[in-house]
Amino acid sequence: MISVILTTYERRELVARALASVFAQITAAGEVIVVDDGSTDGTAEFLRHQPIQLLRVPHSGNPAVARNAGLDRARGDLIAFLDSDDTLRPNALKDLSAALQAHRAAGFAYGAYEPDPGPRLAVPPVADIFDRLLES
C-alpha cells in the first residue's frame, strides 16, 4: 500500500490541484493523508469534504513537523510526500513504486522536478535542502 502525505499551509487555492493529481492515480488500496499546518484561509474547511485523512497540527512554520506528523499516521509500505503547491505527473506513483520493486536494495526513489511555466511563486533555495526535509 502507498501512503501519500500532502502538507499544506494557507494554500486553499492550490491544494485542490495537488489533490486532483493524487486522486488521478491513487488506488483504493492507498491512503491520502493531508497535514494542515494551522491554516486560517479556509484550507481546512475545504479539506473536510475530501476523501482523505485530515490531520491538523498547530502552525510551526517548519514543513518537516507536518511531514513527520503525517508519517506517524501513515500505514503504507511506501510513502510519497507532496507539497500542496506541487502536482504529481501522470503515473508518478506507479513509476516510483516500480523503480523500488526493480531495485529492492534502494531505500527511496524520487522523481525529477519540472518547473511550472507560469509566474514564479517563490525564490528557489540557495542551498541543498535534501538532508533537512524531515528535520524538526
What percent of residues adopt helix (DSSP H or I)? Answer: 25-40%
Gap between N and C termini = 26 Å
Output the number of helix runs: 4
The gross shape turns out to be globular
The strand line-up of the biggest sheet is: 3-2-1-4
Characterize the main sheet: 4 strands, parallel
Q: Label the CATH architecture.
A: Alpha-Beta Complex
Rounded mean pLDDT score: 88
Q: What is the element string, with H for helices and E for strands?
A: EHEHEHEH
- Unreliable runs, pLDDT <50, ≥5 residues? none
Relevant CATH superfamily: Spore Coat Polysaccharide Biosynthesis Protein SpsA, Chain A
The first-level CATH class is given as Alpha Beta
How many individual domains? 1
Descriptive overview:
By secondary structure, the protein is α/β, with parallel strands linked by helices. It has one domain (2-111): Spore Coat Polysaccharide Biosynthesis Protein SpsA, Chain A, CATH 3.90.550.10. The protein has helices spanning 12-23, 43-47, 63-73, 92-102, and strands at 2-8, 31-36, 53-56, 78-83. Strand 2 (31-36), helix 2 (43-47) and strand 3 (53-56) form a beta-alpha-beta unit. The mean pLDDT is 88.
